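Q: what sequence does this backbone want?
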């Protein structure tokens, strides 16, 4: 397996994280709980992709198979982020309820403590679209992006395995 596929997956995951952070810190679009959850699998995909690249250079006999497995796990991590994005779209559209952390920061029964918590922390609801482009929310774009990245990477892995039987 060429080093390009795990590099592509790691770079695509890094680009998705960069877009999320630029949206948050550059355009003040504060993330909700589900937005944060969509970021973690991309971090895993970066690590797995880089580990696959490092293994590819290892002299061990099982290194190519292990590199393919790590690349497959990196692709799976990207798909997990897309799956969370798909769930988030459903919450935004009202198709189903969000998680307990969506829009609620309360963890207390004390009315004064709850009031102070609400006044001090911005509540970012998962069921409200903070930004959309062409009618698609950021969670929807993440779903489409993750599917696209996964399809390209899987296709590349299949082409590489067919080009070199036994590899």
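A:
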């Amino acid at each position: 397996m060429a080093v390009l596929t795990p590099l592509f997956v790691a770079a695509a995951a890094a680009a998705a994280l960069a877009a999320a952070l630029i949206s948050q810190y550059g355009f003040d679009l504060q993330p909700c709980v589900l937005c944060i959850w969509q970021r973690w699998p991309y971090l895993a995909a970066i690590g797995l992709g880089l580990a696959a690249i490092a293994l590819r250079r290892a002299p061990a006999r099982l290194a190519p198979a292990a590199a393919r497995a790590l690349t497959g796990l990196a692709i799976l991590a990207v798909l997990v982020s897309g799956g969370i994005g798909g769930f988030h779209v459903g919450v935004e559209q009202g198709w189903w309820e969000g998680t307990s952390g969506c829009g609620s920061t309360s963890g207390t029964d004390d009315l004064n403590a709850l009031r102070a918590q609400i006044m001090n922390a911005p509540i970012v609801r998962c069921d409200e679209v903070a930004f959309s482009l062409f009618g698609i929310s950021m969670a929807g774009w993440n779903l489409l992006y993750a599917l696209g990245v996964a399809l390209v990477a899987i296709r590349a892995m299949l082409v590489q395995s067919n080009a070199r039987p036994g590899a």
